[in-house]
Amino acid sequence: MFALKRELKLNKVEASLMRGCAGFKRFVYNFGLELLTSSWSFEDVKASDNKRIDAIKQVLTGMMDEPEYQWMRKYPSTVYQSAFIDLKDAFSRWRKGLSGFPNKKSKKKGDSFTVYRTSGIYPVKGQPAKAFTNRVVIEAGRRIKLPGLATFRLKEKINFMCSSQTFTVSRTADKWFVSFMLDAEKVPPVVHPIEIGAIDLGVKCLATVSDGTSYEMPISTKLAKTKLGRMQWHNRNQVKGNRKLGIRQSNNASKSLLEVSRLHARIANIRSDVIHKMTTDISKRIYRIRIEDLNVRGMVANHKLAEAVSNNCFYEIRRQLTYKQPIYGTKLEIVDRWYPSSKTCAKCGHIQHMPLSVRVFDCEACYWVEDRDLNAATNLVNAPEHLVRLA
């Protein structure tokens, strides 16, 4: 299975509808979160989180008949249902220790909501009623029909006919996107030119492969971050607004906030584009890919390395190589983090001290001279098998 994501081409009325749906989901999610946490104070009530959320859902459903909550009826019911599903999933992940405690949704962090088509009975005059499928057929072209809403235009066309049940609409800056899952499998390639290769992730160079290939993060990210800092400093005294204190946000602050969010989205898109192209290229060329088990959290704690490590997205590279294994028929192997790949000579095996400021490995034993990252990538290929595990 794989997903498609396309940008929507909306007018002002359609964008207002999308913001309303996102606000509806945000209201329902925050309402359920607040009632659930407050219900824990009643010690005499013994019920699981899912049962408590189901009871909260019934309470909110009954509140819809009141005049002040009539506005919720103009939005699809699946938005309402998906909000409680997400709340259950958030608390389930928190209980298992997979994530932190769920926080309230905020429009400042982006809007999103989910709609889906439910199964039902399709009546045909003069014929017995038939159950229709709970999937939406998507025609090839620049239009997509979202269940419960309407048909919207796309900025990039879909080249083939497909079908899906669940559609997630999200906002980044002032752009709206729709993503959906396809029940299809990509046939992985059978032959890779390189049997085994390793990747050394670095601060100065994004990634160095053991075959000599290197990948750089483009200079455009640094220029965009410089522009971002200058823009934020220029708008530092604007009235941002505070709902608790009753202070409204100024018009200039709203404009500058939109410009900053657009620039943040541009930086994120550049990083995502570079990393996706790099991991795809590596997955097409190398069958067994080795990568070091880096302590990213510890590296980010170092204020001298935090910016470079965050900019190069070390964990995201590993995550993409992991989920692309069945797509491209690769095998990702993780080398133990205590293996001294950067300090070991790839030719004679001599281990020496190598500070980060030294970018060329000059062996003190055999006088072998090699680029630091390429030497580390070669050592990862030759790492002992007892230090290697599958991702």
Concise account of the structure shown:
With 391 residues, the protein is of the alpha+beta class. The protein folds into 2 domains: 1-185, no CATH class; 194-390, no CATH class. The protein contains 10 helices and 18 strands.
Which descriptors would you attach to this protein?
6-stranded antiparallel sheet; alpha+beta; single chain; 10 helices; 6-stranded mixed sheet; 391 residues
- Strands in their spatial order, largest beta sheet: 2-9-10-1-7-6
Please give the domain count. Answer: 2
Largest sheet: 6 strands, antiparallel
Total of helices: 10
Radius of gyration: 26 Å
- Please estimate the helix content: 25-40%
Low-confidence stretches: 120-125
What's the pLDDT, averaged over the residues? 86
How would you portray this structure in words?
The protein has 391 residues and is α+β, with helices and mostly antiparallel strands. It folds into two domains: 185 residues, no CATH class; 197 residues, no CATH class. It contains ten helices and 18 strands. The strands form five sheets. A six-stranded antiparallel β-sheet has the order 2-9-10-1-7-6. Strands 13-12-11-14-15-18 form a six-stranded mixed β-sheet, sandwiched between helices. Strands 3-4 form a two-stranded antiparallel ribbon. Helix 2 runs antiparallel to helix 3. It is globular and about 85 Å long.
